[in-house]
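User: Here's a protein and a ligand (pyridoxal-5'-phosphate). What would the complex look like?
Assistant: Let me lay out the input and then the predicted complex.
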Amino acid sequence: MTHASWQEIQRADSAAIWHPYAPATGGPAVYPVVRASGVRLRLADGRELIDGMSSWWCAIHGYNHPVLNRAAIAQLQQMSHVMFGGLTHEPAAQLANLLVELTPAPLDRVFFSDSGSVSVEVAMKMAIQYWYSAGKPQKQKLLSLRNGYHGDTFGAMSLCDPVTGMHHLFGAALSQQLFAPAPGCAFDAPCEDIDLAAMKQLLSQHCTELAAVIVEPVVQGAGGMRFYSPQYLVKLRALCDEFDVLLIFDEIATGFGRTGKLFALEHAAVVPDILCLGKALTGGYMTLAATLCNDRISSGISSGEAGAFMHGPTFMANPLACATALASIRLLLSQPWQRVVQRLNKELSAGLAPARALSRVADVRTLGAIGVIELHEPVDMRVVQPMFVERGVWVRPFGRLVYVMPPYVMNSADVAALTAAMVDVVAQL
Ligand SMILES: *Cc1c(COP(=O)(O)O)cnc(C)c1O
């Protein structure tokens, strides 16, 4: 197959495309990719980069995996899509049952949607519609954590950190939610009642108007790559029960093994009322998300005034995405993935350790297959992005964070090359 040249792709791109979190024109350079295989991205000029990002947490098995390719092709030859109103199909039915089996009881009902942000919108609507059905229509607000990230649509955005989430830009168009401080207790530290004092205060003051608390369990991702104590979740569950407020976990980033457990909630053995999954669900092949809930929510909504849950995306439960998700999850479970993630953790920790000695480094931390160098000052992407590409790695920092979450298939030599490049770039800044 012949490809357009690097310049042709870049020219066509800059003529018409608007990239994420970027100005329409004149932003930092974008790099044309022509092929991705295993852990390597091949650029249009033939250079290959070791991928440290898994395309934003998704490509856990790497790219172009024969098992996932086969599943997608087989499904394509059956049907790529049918509407989900009034119809169903085997890939969705099997995937929903597998998700119920893998997540803790009593999460037993699955609502599919197209992206993580929409699965958060669905979770919010479930919580609000549940309370409406239960005769408490005044419970419509949500409480989330500072430094949180839950997506870019309006509902999801209203739950993101009010400062880094750019709330001032959208002003009154955003729902006004409540925010508790980010958990202060470190991942391996105990969590005391005092760590949830502000959370408890907010719950007791606002419980009559609160539908749910939403948090990213254990790892706050795009809002700061912060890891916190699983015990926080145990105490939070107890507080939500005490004040009769639902609990939503957003595992869109942490799900499917990234933190060393299949789901981050397993670190705490705490079960939410509603759970959001996305990102790695299809192994990075297609966009798909799921919102799971317990019978209290699903029965409550279904027996309420509307008699149905009022949501239904056009591409709900897309068969190609469901079939690929099934293949991806089965592939993950067929392997000793816990040991793989443990190995990656050791190698990331060892590889990033030398960064601790650098004066511009504030912290180095790892959890599961996540490695983070936190700097004192934000990086300049125009300077730092070419430095990574020159060193043959794909790392995409944001703000003060230079971080990676590599595909699980990355071998030890590639992890060493990736972490060495990160330390070198940070040292050269
Ligand atoms: C990425 C992410 C989302 C949003 O998912 P999209 O698929 O980008 O809409 C929501 N919550 C968390 C924790 C995420 O990491």
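Summary: The radius of gyration is 22 Å.
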